């Protein structure tokens, strides 16, 4: 076994630690909120009627991930949201959610909105994919 880092006293490289593990705190007493994950894709008539682009209803053809998080008794100003390429980290005074995303996302092209009448935070994230015959936009 050989340590491959610059500092011989470290026991692992930073590349070996999964993204988001710095947020994982098992001793945090805050409750995990209810959430749902949806996948969204943009289709046109060439997809629906003719099947010309090769898209199908699978998540492999989706462009966006939509995450709806229930946050009862929470104000918009109390929400802290951090999005990384593979991790969503949400914190409020009463709730905490560390969610490892099913696909890498573009953390710069996301948007979030708080629906106060439903007490729900809706986060829409653009999936980062390699261009192929299905994902060309």
Automatic annotation (TrEMBL):
GO MF terms, alphabetically ordered: dynein intermediate chain binding; protein-folding chaperone binding
Gene Ontology, cellular component aspect: cytoplasm
Family annotation (InterPro entries): DNAAF6, PIH1D1/2/3_CS-like
GO biological-process terms attached to the record: axonemal dynein complex assembly; flagellated sperm motility
Signal peptide: none
PIH1D1/2/3 CS-like domain ranges (all copies): 32-127
Domain of life: Eukaryota
Protein family per UniProt: Belongs to the PIH1 family.
PANTHER family for this protein: DYNEIN AXONEMAL ASSEMBLY FACTOR 6, TWISTER
Protein name (record): PIHD3 protein
Organism annotation: Edolisoma coerulescens
Encoding gene (name): Pih1d3
